[in-house]
Amino acid sequence: MSADARTVLQDLLPDQTASDLVPGAEGFGPIREDLAAAPVLKGGKTVAWAFVTSDFVGTTGYSGKPIHTLIAVDPDARIAGVRLVKHSEPIVLIGIPEAKVRALVEGYKGLDLVAEAQSGGTTHDVDIISGATVTVMVIDDSIIRSGLKVARALGLGGLAPVAAAAGPRFEIDPAAAAPADWATMEGDGTLRRLSLDVGQVNEAFAASPDIRAAQRALTEAPETTFIDMQVALVSVPGIGKAILGDAADANLRGWLAEGDQAIAVFGQGLYSFKGSGYVRGGIFDRIVLIQDDVSVRFRDRDHRRLNGIAAEGAPGFTEMDLFRIPAGTGFDPAKPFRIQLLVQREVGPIEKVFQTFELAYELPPHYLRQVTAPAPEPQAAPAAATPVASEESQAQAELWKRIWLDSQARIAVLGVMLLVLTGVFFFQHFAVRNERRFYIFRMVYLAATLVVLGWMFNAQLSVVNLMALFGALVTGFSWQAFLLDPLTFILWFAVAAALLFWGRGAYCGWLCPFGALQELTNQVARKLRIPQWTLPWGLHERLWPLKYMIFLGLFGASLMSVEQAERLAEVEPFKTAIILKFVRAWPFVAYAVALLVAGLFVERFYCRYLCPLGAALAIPARIRMFDWLKRYHECGNPCQICAHECPVQSIHPTGEINPNECINCLHCQVLYHSPKVCPVVIKKVKRRDKLAASAVPDLGRPPAGHPNAARVTKPSI
């Protein structure tokens, strides 16, 4: 460790107490020269090694800043203690009790890193906290990867550093062909098999510590096939053609992107290797591919069913499926791997016990060819205090890509909502023609915003996002941090585009879940005949600046302390009402409810006068390129109907619309086209009707030139 490379551990360790990290510890020893790790001492002996995750792996969270976790690993490579030391996560700071997140982190105590290394990081469960998914995933990823790096660097638990292969390297030979019949492929290792009968499975569960597992043994004959599962690496061209046939293999190649691999899994017997859990959750939880530290869990998007087998002599399988291994997982098809099968047995109404069985797979040598090994590079120094930039960049990229892939359905829903809203704005002339239909559409859209975007997806923007963006621009911008939350990322891009076209109203009036909650509750209040208050224009105009003052105050506070500004941002009730769905300490709930109650009498009370996010979006609202809202010369003088009916009083008595306050609800456009309300339209309709009436001939008078025309006289009065 060079003298000028200061580590996070050096900055944080002086403020830590050893006994808080490892019970009974008396202090920390000096930090090693070659590794950012310090001995944890007890009775003069080293009982563990302490380090900070950020010194070894990327830990950038939602805030754009690192999440520093202090970990102690004992000589057996078990986590002896773990503490969340420092972070700037806004979701945690202002939405979720700090104790809840710290308890989750401390739950990693006792984790066996040797088992994690052998299983590819799959032996533990991740407890996701609602509203902090990104934060928890970053913490989990950093604890496991940094723990394995340190344990290997120090040789703890028998783990050794990952060394580059000394011998020749191999890659798939695209010219290698596979046998045409099933039996030959079984014999040469192209296909690998796991076969279990009922007797073997009962015996495995009989050894379970839970005696209920043995008591619920399968009743079929012991020799009955429980599962007969076979696997082949069909991304190898020769194997794919032999097993799938030319047409299906061509479809497979079209499905796989560059660097992707695929396995075919076949099964028959009492037990399904797929189960039905993937239908509900999208994850095939009964099988996992493991290769060294790499573990791949398959999701429904990486799955396709097979309709048949081209190879001669194939058994009559009841399940035939393809599973894709995405590029970037670290999987090497030329190296051995294993498929772990999870077998479950119910021991109670909702309780299950599990046993695992493994199928080992190694590609036969004749499918491989040797790669010319590059000249050996000079031996690198021991594990550095700071991770290699390219390695960490790749690891962080894999994390956000995994989050985006897991969010495909939600991204699609948001995309549809944005597309529909864009269509409404571009074709508002047609959208607002029918007042009742447009009202129903708006209420349905706001309900979707509240329930789907808000309560289900937690896609609620916040002024905290803007403070995090500004902090990132000042301290060193990185896309990685903002890509960790795909819906927020997409929404901010959509808002930025909308500001150029329509101003802030596209988000505030249609896509803000809390704004939708206010308007929907106000509509209910109107149905219940709760009186609506319209503030005098002078008072209303003087209350407008409050939200701008709040925003500027928060922005100024963020320049001194982001953490303090994030706490002050509790003026936003979004986390209480939307993210946590009112499940929070009573003062926060009382504040959010008070704002909603005020909104029952004054529509969108919070949006009008207090919202710092609305103020932040209103500042650039005047740069919009187009003016979509149509007005008549008579608007404001003499007509005041739109000004009186504007839900947020954004229309001045003189008739002009204030773009800083308009939420683009399009109610004024409904009135603009209304033949029942708008005086200008009413006048036009009357004039048109009068012209139409004058154009109709008098059927009682003969036309000029008629013989009887002269005899027609006026009726007497």
Automatic annotation (TrEMBL):
The chain crosses the membrane at residues 409-427, 439-457, 463-482, 489-507, 543-562, 583-602. SMART domains: FMN_bind. Residues 61-150 form the FMN-binding domain. InterPro entries: 4Fe4S_Fe-S-bd, FMN-bd, NosR, NosR_regulator. Residues 696-717 are annotated as: Disordered. The keyword Membrane applies. Coiled coil: none annotated. Its main location: membrane. It is found in: Cell membrane. The keyword Mitochondrion does not apply. Keywords: Cell membrane, Membrane, Transmembrane, Transmembrane helix. It comes from the Bacteria. This is 4Fe-4S binding protein. It comes from Paracoccus benzoatiresistens. The lineage of its organism: Bacteria, Pseudomonadati, Pseudomonadota, Alphaproteobacteria, Rhodobacterales.
